[in-house]
Design goal:
- The complex is a heterodimer of chains A (223) and B (393).
- In chain A, helix 1 crosses helix 2.
- Chain A contains 5 helices and 7 strands; from the N terminus they run αββαββββαβαα.
- In chain A, strands 1-2-5-4-3 form a 5-stranded mixed β-sheet. Chain A has a two-stranded parallel ribbon with strand order 6-7.
- Chain A is α/β, with parallel strands linked by helices and 223 residues long.
- Helices cover 51% and strands 12% of the residues of chain B.
- A 3-stranded antiparallel β-sheet of chain B has the order 1-2-3.
- With 393 residues, chain B is mostly helical.
- The chains are: A alpha/beta (223), B mainly alpha (393).
- At the A-B interface, strand 3, helix 3 and helix 5 of A face helix 2, helix 9, strand 6, strand 7 and strand 8 of B.
Chain lengths: 223, 393
């Protein structure tokens, strides 16, 4: 066979829910009580939440026990509702009261910040979403020993959310100037362009005059 | 000798060469190093990517790409947009294959709303997706020649890419940023005569691929500059999360078009996923050429099986997406592009994590440039193929 021809490998079965349930069992066996919460949505995806201290151990378990060889991404979530809403307030008026209730999504949580990541299997064709709480010290173990590709993702999360990754060799800023203060992806960091001038696009999302009642009824009828 | 053992030997050789380069540089040559700064404004970097190389003689000891000159903060901007407004932003991530950026986001929103586009819309989405792949990768093939000193291919690429852009413009109204995808379907149906024209253009594009294969890939200089250069072994490629043609060029048979269930039309037709065992610059370029040709065939097959019917599902006029989280990724021209969308039942998303292909593909640069020679830096970067907007988002 000439080197120019392609490699034909048999196509694996597309993943089923049994596979996803198996991942949860494998992870529970590997991590024990450090696996705090799980969610398997049939036909969709798997979500896992592990304790902060077991973050790297969970990464190794995903890679070596479950067999997820492909690193997809790593990032952070700030669950605080934005104090600025969607940036559509009129700057000349006082800011309206907004809820500050922190409500974590799937698999719950106890803290405002969470680190979340995803890894895939190139042979079994499925992936796992995994997350962990980040406490007040804003520190979690680095995933570089697990997946070398986590390096840049952790640098990004460091500057955008202010997470510290213990064991990361080089947490320099990627995007922001080195002396930049604040962490832009935190919800309490204002989007300044929206603070100085009202957003003109707001008309797009409001019902047209005379259609307000009609829009409300169609929405409930059709959704 | 079987292909599998060849693969192993080549990878071993690459490792040994890398380690030898390290040892030589660190122990024997204690000459004074020099730092070479390529970019951010440099014709060989496809945009404002800056690469800092520390050299010893002609060899790179250490290299670090410095991204961020084009960071536009799309993840933050999505939080102040409504769902339909986000497609305008994400169009500009990989600006050569814009339509392909819209699709995964729209699919994620549809997944959360639990609606599905009608079959005709799914088909047309897939056709336009493949057309943006052709428009994107054909420019890569032309540009590749320029990096090695061949000027002709780029003119041919621009000529033939124009036909594809005209098709995209004919269907969507936008050459570069179609913004054509809607939650629940498409803005419009295909115009009259578009299907026949597309078949003609696909023939032209197949001729273009043949010409490129003769002109560029058979060229001795091209082969000398790319074969065995910048080898990325399989296990390194997957742990860095490389995707798309770069990953398949390292011998990993992974293509999201085939390997996952999606409400798109790829599973309705038969197509070949090309892989190459070598993992060098040549393999990456070669895979892209084959994929462009395969994409023209996919478009032809999809046009043959195009179902009739509406192109828009019934969706509320004001789109509120129910609370939930969804991850959708597709095989974009540059690799795996995915959106992790968190909705709180509002008009706009609560958080969108954009996983773009070039960010992961280029994070391997410090690893792959270690020990290579300066002229190879340019060919390796060209073969890795990144779009600056896709790195910085």
């Amino acid at each position: 066979m000439s080197p120019l021809s392609s490699v034909d490998t048999p196509i694996a079965e597309l993943p089923g829910d049994a596979l996803r349930e198996r991942v949860v069992d494998q992870m529970r066996a590997a991590l024990g009580t450090d696996l705090i919460d799980t969610l398997v949505k049939p036909g969709d995806d798997v979500w896992l939440r592990v304790s902060t201290d077991a973050w790297r151990a969970a990464g190794f378990a995903l890679r070596d026990v479950v067999g997820l060889d492909y690193f997809c991404f790593l990032s952070g979530i700030d669950w605080l509702p934005s104090p600025f809403g969607r940036g559509e307030d009129d700057p000349s008026e006082p800011q309206p009261e907004r809820s500050t209730e922190i409500k974590q999504g799937y698999t719950g949580g106890d803290t405002r910040f969470q680190v979340f990541a995803r890894a895939n299997s190139t042979s079994l064709h499925f992936g796992v979403n995994i997350r962990a709480d980040i406490g007040d010290d804003m520190t979690v173990q680095s995933w570089i020993p697990v997946y070398a590709g986590a390096n840049w993702h952790e640098r990004e999360a460091h500057e955008m959310f202010g997470f510290n990754f213990a064991g990361h060799p080089d947490l320099r800023n990627m995007y922001l100037p080195s002396g930049f203060e604040g962490h832009p992806m935190r919800k309490d960091f204002p989007l300044l362009a929206r603070m100085v001038k009202p957003w003109p696009g707001i008309v797009d999302v409001e019902p047209l005059p005379g259609e307000a009642e009609e829009a409300d009824t169609t929405e409930t009828a059709e959704s | 000798m079987s292909l599998q053992t060849m693969l192993g030997d080549r990878q071993k050789l690459a490792y040994i060469a890398g380690q030898a380069a390290d040892a030589r540089l660190n122990v024997e040559l204690e000459t004074e190093g020099m730092t070479l700064n390529i970019g951010p404004q440099h014709p060989a970097t496809h945009g404002t990517l800056r690469i800092i190389c520390r050299l010893d003689g002609e060899q790179v000891v250490w290299a670090e790409p410095s991204a961020g000159y084009m960071h536009r903060g799309y993840e933050k901007l999505t939080e102040v947009r409504t769902f339909p407004q986000v497609t305008t932003l994400v169009n500009r991530i990989d600006w050569l294959g814009s339509f392909a950026n819209e699709v995964p986001f729209i699919l994620a929103a549809e997944k959360l709303m639990n609606i599905e586009a009608p079959p005709r819309a799914q088909h047309i989405r897939t056709i336009l997706f493949e057309l943006s792949r052709i428009a994107n990768v054909s420019l890569f093939l032309g540009d590749l020649g320029v990096q090695m000193g061949a000027i002709t291919p780029v003119f041919m690429a621009f000529r033939d890419r124009e036909y594809v852009l005209n098709l995209i413009e004919g269907a969507t109204g936008g050459r570069f940023h179609p913004n054509f995808d809607r939650i629940g379907g498409l803005k419009d149906d295909l115009p009259k005569g578009w299907i026949d024209e597309t078949r003609g253009v696909m023939k032209k594009l197949r001729n273009f691929c043949d010409e490129m294969e003769d002109l560029l890939f058979g060229n001795e200089i091209f082969q000398a500059r790319t074969r065995g250069i910048g080898v990325i072994p399989k296990d390194i490629a997957v742990q860095y999360g490389m995707s798309g043609a770069n990953l398949r060029a390292s011998g990993v048979d992974y293509d999201l078009r085939r390997d996952q269930h999606q409400p798109l039309a790829w599973d309705k037709i038969d197509f070949k996923v090309w892989t190459h065992p070598d993992g060098d610059s040549f393999a990456r370029c070669w895979i892209r050429l084959q994929e462009t040709r395969e994409a023209t065939k996919i478009v032809d097959k999809l046009l043959d099986t195009l179902p009739a019917g509406p192109v828009m599902a019934k969706v509320p006029r004001i789109i509120k997406v129910p609370e939930g989280e969804a991850w959708v990724s597709t095989e974009n021209p540059l690799g795996e592009m995915g959106y992790y969308v968190i909705s709180k039942g509002d008009l706009g998303p609560f958080r969108v994590k954009i996983r773009s292909a070039s960010f992961n593909n280029i994070s391997i640069v410090p690893w792959v440039l270690r020990g290579v020679f300066v002229p190879d830096v340019i060919t390796i970067l060209a073969s890795l193929y990144f779009i600056l907007g896709d790195i910085d988002r």
